[in-house]
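Holo prediction — zinc ion.
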Amino acid sequence: MFQNVYYERKVGTSQPCYVCRRPTTTVLATLKTEDFLYTCQGHLTDVGFATLIAAPSGPSADDIRKVVDEYRARETRRTETKAEKDDKDDKDKDKEKKEKESGGLLSYLPSLPGFGHEEKESSSPKSPRSPAPVTPVNVPSSPAPPAHRKFALHRAIFSSRQGELARKAQTARAKEVSKTLPQAPRGSF
Ligand SMILES: [Zn+2]
């Protein structure tokens, strides 16, 4: 019917905890909300009720470290390349002049103020060491808790939930059937 995988969610209105009836705004719900139950923080960490499986979305601490490392490496590379480029710029200017004289492609480019230098840098395929365009990476200073933690209900509780939902479904089906058939055959439930 559905998996024993429940996601922690927050709701605006508090409801009694499934176990201890204490009011709580935390809900454990399956992915498609086939089932959900209100759970206080205390019972969220009660292995007799539910066990934290994993953080489903969001990078792990390792992932974040990797991204940070890559980002730093890119930054370093960019600084190095920039230093090299300063040298290169003089040569480029010479070349530009020559191309203009010879009616090269560059002579068609609009001579807007500030145009050329930056544009050329990013679109230039001439320097192979030029790093790919860097998209700013939002690196959290510390691994934030993921939005939706994933839990598995205790086996006994899960099977009682399944049973309860099956009963409900059965009742709903029986009602549906009894609407159309005056003498609905009883299921062997
Ligand atoms: Zn509770």
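READOUT: Residues 64 and 139 are 7 Å apart (CA to CA).
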